[in-house]
Amino acid sequence: MSSTDDMQIFLTYGDIALASSLIIIVLILSWRLRLTLTKTLLTAAVRTIVQLSFIGLILAWIFAREQWYEVLLILTIMTLIAGGAAKNRVKRSYKGLFIDTLLAVSLSAVLVTSIAIFVILRVQPWYTPQFVIPILGLILGNSLTAISLTSNQLIEAFHEQQGRIEMMLSLSARPFEAVHEQIRAAIINGMTPTLNSMLVVGIVSLPGMMTGQILAGADPTQAVRYQIVTMFLICVSSTLGCTISALLIYRRFFNKNEQFLSP
C-alpha cells in the first residue's frame, strides 16, 4: 500500500490541455447568456498559458543562476508592471497618475517584502529567488488591486463632491479636513477585499499559496504558517499602499496655497 505522505503528482502537457478544455463550459455559458465575453475569455485563457509558461522558463533560469543583479532586475520589472496595471485600472486619469500609483505600489511592496525577507524569514542571501520573487509577486498583486480601488473611488469623489469640498474650504476648513471623509471611504474601499479574504480564510477558502504547497507535498502545518505570514504581509502592504495613494492624490488636487484644483 502506498503512503500519501510520499505521493507527488507531476502534471503533464496533457493535463494542462485537459484543464484548458474546461474553458469551453465558460464559453458556452457566455454564448447562451449573451454575455459578450467570448473574445475576452479566449484572450485571457491564451495569455494565461503564454505568460505563465514564459515566466516559468525565466524563473527556472534565474533559480539556477542566483545572481543578485538578475533577481533585482526581475523585481524592478515586476514593480513597474504592477504600477502600470494599477494606473490602467483607474477610470479618471490625471497628469502624474502613473508616478503616484508606482510610488504607492513600490513603497508599500518593497518595505513589506524587506521586512519579510530580512526580519521574519531571515533569508540568506537576501536575493534567493525562491523566496524574494514569489513574496514580492504575491504582495504586488494584492496591493495593486487595493490601490486601484482606492484611487478610483477617491478621484471619483473629488469630481462628484467638488461643491461640498469648496464649501467646507470657504467655511475655514483645512484642506485635509475638507476631504477627510472621502479619503477615509476610499481607503476602506481599497482594503475591503483583503479584509474579506482574511475573515473567511481557512473556513470558506483555502488560499492559492497554501493549496499549491499542499499539492506539491509540503507539510500542511508549514503551509498554514506560511499562509498566515503572507496574509499579514498582504494586509500591511495593502493598507500602506492605499494610504500612500490617497495622500498622493490629495496633494495633486490642492496647490501650495491650499486651494482645491477643480478636476
List keywords for this structure.
single chain, about 260 residues, mainly alpha, 2 domains, 10 helices, globular, Iron export ABC transporter permease subunit FetB
Q: Would you write up a description of this structure?
A:
With 263 residues, the protein is mainly α. It has helices at 13-21, 23-32, 38-65, 68-88, 97-120, 129-160, 162-170, 175-200, 208-215, 220-252. It folds into two domains: 1-65, no CATH class; 67-252, no CATH class. Helices cover 76% and strands 0% of the residues. Helix 4 (68-88) runs parallel beside helix 6 and helix 7 (162-170) crosses helix 8.
Biggest sheet descriptor: none
What is the H/E order? Answer: HHHHHHHHHH
| Helix/strand/pairing category | mainly alpha
- How many discrete structural domains? 2
Indicate the topology.
Layout: H1 13-21, H2 23-32, H3 38-65, H4 68-88, H5 97-120, H6 129-160, H7 162-170, H8 175-200, H9 208-215, H10 220-252
Helix pairs in contact: 2-3, 4-5, 4-6, 5-6, 5-10, 6-8, 6-10, 7-8, 8-10, 9-10
In short:
It holds the Pfam family UPF0014. The chain has 263 residues and is mostly helical. The protein has ten helices and no strands.
